[in-house]
Write a structure and sequence with these properties.
Elements lengths: L15 H11 L7 H5 L7 H11 L5 H10 L1 H7 L6 H7 L3 E3 L5 E3 L5 H11 L7 E3 L15 E9 L2 E12 L3 H20 L2 E13 L5 H8 L8 E4 L14 E4 L14
Parallel strand pairs: 5-6
Antiparallel strand pairs: 1-2, 3-4, 4-5, 7-8
Helix pairs in contact: 1-8, 4-5
């Protein structure tokens, strides 16, 4: 990622602003889709929509469901929450404290992201710069268990590299967003800790193509990559939790046309 290089696909348009809004939403710890829908980000809408349709028998359209989520706070509270997905685990991993009578009460949440920022500053040579999303105790309460589950960061010669292990990867759609988010998070961490950006390293467990993405994949395989997109972070915020979309700019990105494909729920 030196010189601002960023793993942004050029054989189709990747909506990096949408992916950025999702990452910034993760960093808030929010688990309700209302704020995403208000920004026109529908990445997570299909799961609550599917739950609503099955529970009520309604054939409401996605657009109407999203509109109601934004406009009706009570409706959003009932139907828009995803359970303790990524952001909750990243910045508010649950803990429990004994009451002394054999029972336990909720303790203070653990902010893994803040811990990684601090450890990169204080002990950059540590082998424990990890953000983990796979909370076994809460998987059944999540709309979707984390696919991009484990992030580990490594410092060498003043350069910060980020590694992502992804247990399940939708190669046709999700992969492009996952790579962008890995690189963006690594760049943000590097800026916050006074380091240069190193490498973005990706590993996949179950890497798959859905049958309804066949046309997307075939069209993409006929195209040749071109260009060298770069990411510029236009300002340094006081905290990694303070960044806004306008702080990021992508230059020299001239992708080929968008290829539409449905999300597999």
């Amino acid at each position: 990622m030196s010189g601002g290089a960023i793993p942004l696909l050029t054989t189709k348009r990747v909506y990096w602003k949408t992916a950025t809004r999702e990452l910034l939403w993760f960093l808030t710890g929010d688990t309700n889709i209302r704020k995403l829908c208000a920004q026109g980000v529908e990445i997570w809408t299909d799961w609550p929509l599917d739950r609503y349709r099955k529970a009520t028998g309604s054939d409401i359209s996605r657009a109407d469901f999203s509109k109601r989520i934004v406009e009706d706070a009570d409706f959003a509270e009932e139907w828009g929450d995803l359970g303790p997905v990524y952001g909750k685990q990243w910045v508010d991993w649950p803990t429990f404290e004994p009451n002394g009578d054999g029972t336990f009460s909720a303790g203070p949440g653990i902010n893994q992201v803040a811990q990684v920022v601090e450890s990169l500053k204080v002990t950059p040579g540590s082998r424990r710069h990890i953000i983990e999303g796979w909370n076994v105790a809460e998987l059944d309460a999540m709309a979707l268990p984390p696919c991009h589950k484990t992030y580990q960061f490594h410092v060498a010669d003043g350069r910060l590299s980020g590694l992502l292990y992804q247990r399940s990867c939708d190669l046709g759609l999700g992969f492009a967003f996952n790579m962008w988010s890995l690189a963006l998070l690594t760049r943000m961490l590097a800026q916050q800790t006074g380091l240069e950006a190193g490498e973005a390293v990706w590993m996949g467990g179950d890497v798959h193509l859905y049958l309804n993405h066949r046309a997307l994949v075939e069209a993409q395989l006929e195209r040749e990559p071109s260009g060298t997109p770069r990411l510029e972070i236009t300002r340094q915020r006081d905290s990694i939790f303070d960044y806004r979309l306008e702080d990021f700019s992508v230059v020299e990105y001239s992708p080929q046309s968008h290829i539409s494909a449905p999300v597999a729920v």
